[in-house]
Amino acid sequence: MSIGFLVLLVLLVLLFVLALWKRIAFGPVVRRFIEQFAMLVPRMLCALVAAGFIAQLIPKQAVASLLGDDAGLWAIPVAAAAGLMVPAGPVITFAIAAVLAKSGASTHALITFVTSWSIFATHRILIYELPLLGASFLRLRVASAWVVPFLAGLAAYGVGLLSTYGTAVPIQ
């Protein structure tokens, strides 16, 4: 079991005890859990199958040479561009990140990839931001936030030079 899973399990038990102590009705909670479970599980299954296909399509040598430790700082702009081009939600994006990790991408490249996707997800820009807030808002937001994925990648690279914090290893 992973530490993250154990933390979530402890948190769930604490919330359960708190709900019992405050005598909160469980009906709405159970109904919401079933709704979320029914919505998320099919997405996760599709994302993991898609990640399996992507893992077979992406040549490991290309990932290792562009995003691996040997790429050095060059991996940061490549990962930022890759994160910008992923037009999907978190289920697909993190599955792609897991595939990249298994293919030899460095930790600082993965951090840059996820940060770039988080800030500049193409689908959110095209579907929500441009139509609802306009091009001038988008220009200002991009001008003020474009450096963040690069800084996150550089910080991860610097921390990696100073200490060993491990590499991203997807759970099998």
Report on the structure:
The protein has nine helices and no strands. It has 172 residues and is mostly helical. It has two domains: 57 residues; 114 residues, no CATH class. The longest helix is centred in the first third of the chain and has 31 residues.
Net shape: globular
Q: Structural class, from helix and strand content?
A: mainly alpha
- C-alpha Rg, in Å? 19 Å
Number of helices: 9
Strand content: under 5%
Summarize the amount of helix as a percent range.
over 70%
User: What is the terminal separation in angstroms?
Assistant: 11 Å
Number of strands: 0
Q: What's the average pLDDT?
A: 87
The stretches of 5 or more residues where confidence is low (pLDDT under 50) are: none
- Please describe the biggest sheet, giving its number of strands, its sense, and whether it closes into a barrel: none
Element pattern in H and E: HHHHHHHHH
Total count of domains? 2
